[in-house]
Design a protein that fits this description.
By secondary structure, the chain is mainly alpha-helical. The chain has two domains: 122 residues, no CATH class; 241 residues, no CATH class. Helix content is 74%, strand content 6%. The protein has 16 helices and three strands. A three-stranded antiparallel sheet has the order 2-1-3. Helix 2 runs antiparallel to helix 7 and helix 11 crosses helix 12.
Length: 402
Amino acid sequence: MPSYEYKAIDKTGRPARGAVDAVNEVDLELRLRRMGLDLITFRQIERQTRTFAGGGKITRQDLINLCFDMEQMARSGIPIIDGLRDMRDSIENPRLRDVLTVMTEDMEGGKVLSQCMSSHPAVFDNVFVSLIRAGEQSGQLPEVFKNLADNLKWLDELISQTRRLLILPLITLVVVLAVLTTLLIFLVPQIAQVFKTMGLALPTQTRMLIAVSEFMTQYWYVVFGLPIVVFVVLATAVQRSPRAAYMWDYAKLRLPLVGPTLLKIILSRFANVFALLYRSGITVLDAIKASEDVVNNRVISDGLVRAGQQITAGETLSETFQNLGVFPPLVIRMLRVGESTGALDTALMNITYFYNRDVKESVDKAQKALGPALTLVLGGLLGFVVWAVLGPVYDILGKIKF
């Protein structure tokens, strides 16, 4: 069935645009009339370009705004399909507008909201769809949309904190390496030539520096090309080999300073999503299964798979998480109390609060420690270069008799 881009107006005269499948022009006009729109102009498009007709990207902020609008609409008693039409006509992101257009058509065909969203996994992930389905079944869609918006805002802040943790050390690394490279390729060879002309007996550190400089000057293509080749090979291996991907995720968790903080960020995200799923009425097993992809780390994801198997075998949630060996004793104790008192949802929210605070403090501490540590190491390299260069110069000056 061909697809058409259209421009139309609704009953109040407001303009609307989007894309829709239709057998022919007459069918297109009939479909738009059922949507409450009067056709103005249209053009046929290739079907494969429909989803991306407007280009662009659906950002996390777009989803936050969508959840907020859907929450307000659901609380006001506006039918979902009418709300989708209004959002489709007012949305600025062309790709999201196309997605909402398809969802509107699917709802007109008899699908519920969660089914419509599940047709767009690149926009609405498994957790998102599971929460909407739970909200439909429990009649708590407004609360679900509010929780989703809060979760997306928290995730956005978490990513911002992680970037702040890494950006300063990366800038320091790039600047110092650029300075070192410039010194070794341009400055040191000139100084080495002066030393050779004078026939000086050079100290060990100066000979080492000159040897490194000569290697970089003669084999610069190896120095600059080898890291690129290694990066491409490792990236390809991680993408194509599950074992290599697992080892890479394991190595990231073992990095000094960064690794423990990264583990807390992963566990914080899991605890947040798991609590959100459980509070929405989703069973523990389904919540764990839906959270496997959220952690974005194969080591933790495999642990969650084993946790699901242990719970199926009859173990409690606290015993299972204790066996994983990644949760601190305080978290296990909170889970055990929540299970014994029947207030597991409260315990999960306490764990979420615990990790959110812990991650924020860990990121702040790591940011304060990582920058000075990296500056100290790279500053030491620069100091070695200066020492190796100026050492013979001071020896020459010391032998001069005035």
